[in-house]
What does this fold into?
Amino acid sequence: MLTSRAMLIAAFAVAAAVIGILAVTINFTPSPPPLELKAAENHTQAKPALPLGVSPQLYAIAVPHSREPTPELIALGEKLFKDKRLSVDNTVACETCHDPAKGFTDHRGNSATSAGVKDQHGQRNAPTVLNAMFQSSQFWDGRSATLEDQAKLPILNPVEMGQKDPEDVVGKVRKIPEYAQAFNAIYGNNGTYDEIASAIAAFERTQYSGNSPFDRFLAGDQQAISDSAKRGWELFQGKGRCSACHAVNTVSPLFSDQKFHNIGIAAHKQDFAALARKALAILKTGDAKQIDELALQTNYSELGRFLVTKNQADIGAFKSETLRNIGVTAPYMHDGSLASLWDVMDHYNKGGVPNPFLDGGMQRLGLSEAEIDDTVAFLFTLTDDRFADFNKTELARQTSLKTNRTQRETDVAEGRKGDLGDIGTNPDLRNPATIGAF
It folds into this structure.
């Protein structure tokens, strides 16, 4: 039998091998060449203070040496991120929809989707910026490959920040002395649109998140989470089948497969086939701005990844969003249509909403009410400690909504109605930390 020390060494050896494979297979989009910094040798790279649950290996893959942000660029990016003057009427900043105090979402109580200039509402719910640096693509439909590309689009979208074109943005920023000075100090000019996006992306690359009760549990602290949450962790990996799309390990800690799935959310509203035919007739291949506007301003939003790939298999498919901080980032799904994690569990428990493009992995789960409660308890342990108070408040709010659950269909979930496949097995699982796996 291996000793604890030997098991630990073996676990690290396995992790090292996995890291080598991930460097090839994790499919992070290669970063564009870095923009030239003025007197680059005088700009010291910021040293990341990575939290428990986020490995240095993952950081090295996601942020190659050439893209590591400097303190100066981070400070400039944070200022731009928070500045409403980037919008056409000085009313909306990046942080309007990605509030640092709300888990970098807008957590809107009176609307499922996010609001932009003139209180216009798009078709999408703002995802969190936390750990976006580790995502293989950006936005719910993956229409941007990098943080730099992502930063450019909301500024120009008519229902978000409303600027007409990049030249208008650059002209406005250059007239603000503090920005002209900062860009000149960093880049040796008064700023370009690419440099504005690069600065915002540099700030976003500092928004990593871990340090959750679950991270401490995986590290071996058996008291870090409740017995209910421990049962929920077993259900998450077993009968609940959540880990099929939201798996986690030491070098991929986001609880996301980074892929796109039709789980039936949009099927509440749309005839996908007819909508796809109309979309194909108007899409312009390679026009990122048009795709961005279709995704946010029209009913074509519900086509999801299909708008980007034009592939029929992607109709109604959206990214498996990270589950980290899921307790404080309601409402849920791409359209913000689910108010609580109980609603989310009800949706999956019945196998989603049937439609011609439903992902083949969707099937009824047959979870009891107690098992749903345990799974939700586990999900609330994935919140970063810095949001602990908010997490408690949100747990109380969502618990109060348990009696009003529009997605609950017990007969379907338990197989008395419909036909969505057999219920999977529920294996006897142990905490990986106790067997040297983490």
